[in-house]
């Protein structure tokens, strides 16, 4: 009777549920997740690569519904690639897979970046920051930091051949007098198959005195696969096996709940929307974590129901700010480092102002493009644009950013304003349709359909914000490795002839199917 009452009270408290949550737990681009629990709160770090600010930190009370809390850095590094200057960019690079830990009352998040050539470690006593940075060369690939019971701190990294080093206690670099050692000579061998992507994405855990190392591997002709190695000592010997193989859901680790349940957090490559997080239940058998339900990804989970990603992961913005509110909420990220002299929310109250400061040749080379994630299965973004201060050759509007991008915008050309829809074909931007307009205020909308990997978008314009006209043609949104990121709603303004033009955005509004119900 007492057990039944306990379950009843847990249900009332919303701590457990039966078949309420569904996979994916976040239908948006939140890849390379690393997760911890501190008390009754879960924390997660993820990858946003070339975006600024970067290395997002999120929190949750139920493992399903997440909220952005901070970014570990405002600008990863100052160089031409991160600044989109001198013809350089860092699309698909920037900072990659991170590791989040909590040790001695302090949060620690680490990442690595080919763009900087370094490993970056950020620490804070508060999940909201401010974060203090320490960085050192080289950039240790897909590493996992582990605070062992002997007081030593280790870093495990690599691909195929996995290596281990000991870090200084202050996390400022490799411990002097210690050597890099090989942890597992060929971690991919546990897959027992020809390999396309060698074992990487290390995440290390300890449970009941044993060490467990999670990796992803991709057998040739197969799917993304979870590998698990275990050992009695961190130095080995390690024994490994396939830990999970279903739907390509892989790469992540272990998390437990306050009531003693276990899950594995993983993600799936899911086309144009990006790489999306999943949870699978875990049971312990014979000293191994056994993932999934009969080896499969369950579509429902005994966790509280998924809520809309609005407003905690993405959100609308009317660009009005009260005293004390952040200039830009955490849902926004710039494409690369912005030039902060060329945007404002105060020059014209209630508007985001984007100013041109150089000549650009394309949407992807333009600086100060402001972005948010698209979300699945279907989502819509819309804007209102005042083009009265745009100059000859300026193009401003609403885009969907990836290598094969598309946008709807207003083009000011030889004293004539036109609404244009542009799509990428064969690596080149092609103007699909052009409509002359005489108004300075226009409205644009992009509708995205990621349902069943349709990965299609349509663009619209309006002259009154109420009646919409489809323009151009549907945009096919493939996930491409050069950008390595899901499509993003993007507000932009770039010059092709002269600088000093201004585009004023009155609002950005996002909708999804969940929030419309």
Classified by CATH, the class of the largest domain is: Mainly Beta
Q: Looking at this structure, what is the CATH superfamily of the largest domain?
A: Glycosyl hydrolase domain, family 43
- Strand tally, please? 37
Query: What is the approximate shape?
Result: globular
Name the average pLDDT.
95
Question: How would you write the strand order of the largest sheet?
Answer: 4-24-27-36-29-30-31-32
Signal peptide: 1-21
Family: Belongs to the glycosyl hydrolase 43 family.
InterPro entries: ConA-like_dom_sf, GH43_C2, Glyco_hydro_43, Glyco_hydro_beta-prop_sf, Glycosyl_Hydrlase_43
Domain Beta-xylosidase C-terminal Concanavalin A-like: 325-511
Walkthrough of the structure:
Belongs to the glycosyl hydrolase 43 family. Pfam families: GH43_C2, Glyco_hydro_43. With 517 residues, the chain is mostly beta strands. It has two domains: 2-298, 5 Propeller (Tachylectin-2, Chain A), CATH 2.115.10.20; 333-516, Jelly Rolls (Sandwich), CATH 2.60.120.200. Helices cover 4% and strands 47% of the residues. It has three helices and 37 strands. The chain has an eight-stranded antiparallel sheet with strand order 4-24-27-36-29-30-31-32, with no helix packed on it. Strands 25-26-37-28-33-34-35 form a seven-stranded antiparallel sheet. A hairpin with a 7-residue loop joins strand 9 and strand 10 (132-136). The protein is globular and about 75 Å long. The two termini are 38 Å apart.
């Amino acid at each position: 009777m007492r057990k039944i009452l306990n379950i009843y009270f847990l249900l009332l408290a919303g701590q457990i549920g039966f078949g309420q949550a569904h996979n994916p737990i976040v239908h948006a681009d939140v890849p390379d997740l690393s997760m911890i629990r501190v008390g009754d709160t879960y924390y997660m770090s993820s990858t946003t690569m070339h975006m600024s600010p970067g290395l997002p930190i999120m929190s949750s009370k139920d493992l399903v519904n997440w909220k952005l809390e901070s970014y570990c850095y405002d600008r990863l590094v100052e160089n031409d690639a991160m600044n989109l200057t001198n013809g350089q960019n860092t699309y698909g690079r920037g900072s990659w897979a991170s590791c989040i830990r909590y040790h001695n009352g302090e949060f620690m998040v680490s990442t690595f970046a080919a763009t900087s050539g370094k490993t970056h470690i950020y620490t804070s006593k508060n999940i909201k920051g401010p974060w203090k940075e320490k960085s050192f060369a080289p950039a240790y690939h897909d590493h996992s930091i582990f605070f062992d019971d002997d007081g030593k701190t280790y870093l495990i990294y690599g691909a195929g051949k996995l290596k281990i080093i000991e870090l200084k206690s202050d996390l400022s670099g490799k411990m002097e007098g210690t050597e890099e050692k090989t942890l597992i000579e060929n971690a991919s061998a546990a897959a027992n198959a020809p390999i396309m992507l060698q074992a990487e994405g290390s995440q290390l855990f300890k449970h009941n005195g044993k060490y467990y190392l999670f990796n992803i591997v991709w057998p040739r002709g197969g799917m993304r696969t979870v590998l698990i190695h275990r050992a009695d000592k961190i130095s080995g010997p390690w024994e490994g096996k396939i830990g999970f193989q279903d739907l390509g859901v892989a790469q992540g680790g272990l998390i437990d709940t306050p009531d003693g349940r276990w899950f594995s957090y993983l993600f799936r490559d899911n086309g144009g929307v990006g790489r999306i997080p999943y949870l699978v239940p875990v049971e312990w058998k014979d000293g191994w974590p056994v993932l999934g339900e009969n080896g499969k990804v369950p579509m429902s989970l005994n966790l509280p129901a998924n809520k809309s990603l609005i407003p905690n992961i993405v959100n609308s913005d009317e660009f009005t700010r009260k005293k004390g509110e952040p200039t830009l909420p955490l849902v926004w990220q710039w494409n690369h480092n912005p030039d902060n002299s060329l945007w404002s929310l105060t020059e014209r109250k209630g508007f985001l102002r984007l100013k041109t400061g150089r000549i650009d040749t394309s949407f992807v080379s333009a600086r100060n493009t402001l972005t948010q994630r698209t979300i699945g299965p279907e989502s819509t973004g819309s804007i209102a644009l005042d083009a009265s201060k745009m100059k000859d050759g300026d193009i401003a509007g609403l885009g969907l950013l990836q290598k094969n991008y598309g946008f709807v915008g207003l083009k000011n050309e030889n004293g004539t304003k036109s609404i244009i829809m542009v799509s990428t074909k064969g690596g080149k931007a092609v103007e699909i349709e052009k409509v002359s307009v005489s108004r300075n205020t226009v409205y644009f909308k992009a509708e995205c359909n990621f349902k069943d990997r349709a990965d299609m978008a349509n663009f619209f314009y309006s002259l009154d914000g109420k009646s919409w006209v489809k323009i151009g043609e549907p945009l096919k949104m493939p996930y491409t490795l050069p950008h390595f990121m899901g499509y993003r709603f993007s507000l932009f303004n770039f010059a092709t002839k002269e600088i000093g033009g201004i585009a004023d955005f009155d609002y950005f509004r996002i909708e999804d199917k969940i929030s419309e119900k």
